Fold:
Amino acid sequence: MTRNLTPTSATDSQPGVVTYPRKVIQHIVAKGTSGCITFHDPRDSSVRWNLYVRRGQLTYATSDCRKTERLQCLIRSIQPELSQLEFSDRESEYQMLCQWWHRAGLPMARLRQLLMRLTLEAWVQTLALPKVLVELNKLSKIEPILIETPLTQIQSPLWQMALQWQQWRQNLPSPFSRLYLEPERHPAFRTLWRQYPYQVKGEKQGERFAVRLMQLLGKRLSVYQIAYLLRISAQNLVAWLQPYIAAGVLVVLDNESAITVENSIPQPQTRPEPEIEPIDRPRIVCIDDSKTVQKQVKGILEMSGFEVLGITEPAQALSSLVRLKPAAILMDVNMPDIDGYELCSMLRQSRQLREIPIIMLTGRDGILDRIRAKTLGVNYYLTKPFNPDRLIESVQKVLQNPSSSAS
Structure:
């Protein structure tokens, strides 16, 4: 049974009327709906997102089209050791992952983590849509149910990411959008590259990255495909390419015309071999005794392409940091045993750790606290509650300029 689910109130629905995703979610929760809700992207008829629900709870979310390119990109970012898995656009990746996991005998907790990360990314893309046409299939469901997420509580980091994608949609409809760099625009691309280079290790590696990117942009590939081939996150790629799109250096193709043009263009293989060295995800360590803060930081930064490790006991931080070798450290001020200022002083006196950038993540917003942090060598000062964009921006800043002082 498939019908349109387009609520005009909490108790009514009219077929053929578009509405906002958040209104649909409110309707689903109020009715305790079960089934699969399909959201059609109004800017691209080829893009659809499926949310599977049971009694108003989200059990899984995914794309209803071009699954392979999305999954290859996300799984390489989330769990690189699984990037060898083969997917099919015609089959359910949920069933494939569950069956493969069962045969491999891997921990169930890791499978749930993977399913949740895939779900949250699809949910963010759904929330980023404007008015949409929605369909409900009550007979479609996910089995076995391994995760359930309350739809009533959209966490702030997720909503902030959705709002960011809403802004990006002004220039780029979705991660399935195809980008094209015309040969005559190569000089303009090079000019912008000098102003907005993608941060990689070493000048030589940066040049190889630029050449490889220009090659890929000439093939009319999607954001997901380019991110997969470059081994970076789609979100990082889209954020970085905004100046290039805004300047008209890159052309955003609609999928129908892009497919027509691509008939004579070789498509990437199912498992292509990148021509550049893999780019490691920067490792960020968060030192905070609050599990809630740890979860927020991990969710925000990992979806932006960082690897995040948490330390909840500051007394053990020094020995752990020497072993983990992070690119940057986030830490609270108010912690048991050792406060953030004392720990920062110890880090700056350590020969092995003194050069690592430190971001103070704290509820203290006094001028004296900021002065003390700057005196101790803190690179960035961010107060709670923090904006996800500010957190991402602060981490990117200290990685690009480790010598910067607290602000």
Remarks:
- The longest helix spans residues 108-127.
